[in-house]
Design goal:
20 strands, Elongation Factor Tu (Ef-tu), domain 3, 10-stranded antiparallel beta sheet, OB fold (Dihydrolipoamide Acetyltransferase, E2P), 6-stranded antiparallel beta sheet
Length: 337
């Protein structure tokens, strides 16, 4: 009986110790959980605080610096002349593609490449036997009709004779202006069809060039204005040219820019400059242009437009809407305001 009582006491003690041990473990787990939760909450707080204030909670708050820097600047006036850059190539002031207006065999070629010709000179002749016969036959018939025919018959014969004489003229190719034979594509004995090009005549006494000028720069270009051109083939000096033609219509380029094809003329060019030679040059506007300028940093631009802060005589300021054009290097042109 005594032994049984001892066993019960021992079992009771063991159970009590086990309960205490389990209780301590639960307390430790609760403490650990609370600590972890506290660290998480603290970490979230620090992260949120840093994100909003750009500093840690324990760091000293920095003095805020304004993102907008006031710039005090004076509007000033500048005087300049506009220079327009040019490039292109020259061509003869006049070019004649000598076209044969009749078909037939070539009987004569009166000039060769390099020969100088005068306006009205005969350059090429075709076989005109049939045309001569036709003219002679009509002239003989006209003489008979003048004696015995009616007025109506006379008028018709005169028209046929005029047409035949035109066909006779078509067997000859004539120079349209004074110039130089630049190319010959025909020889005696060749057979040519009407409309074929047999020769090229050019007038090199003057040269011309077509240059492309931007629509913005056209306000500075006038007829008769001087241009200065530089050729690689003529290193002695620059060559003067003149604006000789400004078209009525502009042209729209693939880059989305409006341009004018302006014609320049070179009077009495040096012999060393041949048609097809390239050049670079410029046109300088006559007179001077005044611009009102200000630093771009003084302009505030938003979706609503651009403004500047104007300082009044009494020291107060007022916001003024402006229209400006940026010119580069931190400078803008005041267009309005």
């Amino acid at each position: 009986m005594h032994d049984t009582s001892n066993e019960l006491n021992t079992e009771h003690q063991v159970r009590n110790q086990l309960r205490k041990k389990l209780r301590r473990q639960r307390v430790k787990r609760l403490i650990t959980t609370f600590v972890i939760l506290a660290l998480i909450v603290f970490g979230l707080y620090v992260y949120t605080f840093y994100k909003e204030n750009n500093r840690f909670p324990w760091a000293q708050e920095k003095e805020q610096v304004s993102a907008v820097k006031e710039v005090e600047a004076k509007v000033y006036e500048n005087v300049f002349s506009t220079t327009i850059d040019l490039s292109g190539y020259v061509e003869p002031i006049e070019i004649q593609k000598v076209i044969l207006r009749a078909a037939g065999a070539v009987t004569d070629v009166y000039v060769k490449e390099g020969d100088r010709v005068k306006k009205g000179d005969v350059l090429i002749a075709l076989d005109n036997t049939s045309q001569l016969y036709e003219v002679a036959n009509l002239q003989a018939g006209l003489e008979r009709i003048q004696l015995t025919g009616s007025q109506r018959e006379l008028e018709l014969t005169e028209l046929r004779l005029k047409s035949a004489m035109n066909r006779l003229d078509y067997t000859k190719a004539i120079a349209n202006f004074d110039g130089v034979v630049a190319e010959v594509n025909v020889s005696v004995g060749d057979y040519f069809e009407a409309g074929s090009s047999a020769m090229t005549i050019i007038d090199r006494s003057r040269l011309k060039a077509t240059v492309e000028i931007d629509e913005i720069d056209m306000q500075y270009v006038k007829l008769g204005q001087k241009a200065v051109l530089y050729f690689d083939s003529y290193s002695e000096s620059s060559i003067d040219a003149e604006v000789s033609y400004i078209p009525m219509l502009g042209r729209y380029t693939n880059q989305g820019i409006g341009v004018m094809d302006v014609e320049l003329t070179i009077a009495d060019p040096p012999v060393s400059i041949a048609p097809g030679y390239t050049f670079e040059g410029s046109i300088t506007s006559e007179g001077e242009t005044k611009l009102i300028l200000l630093p771009q940093s003084a302009v505030t631009t938003t979706r609503g437009g651009s403004t500047v802060t104007k300082k009044l005589a009494d020291g107060s300021t007022v916001m003024v809407p402006v229209t400006v054009k940026y010119l580069g290097e931190g400078i803008s042109q005041l267009l309005n305001g």
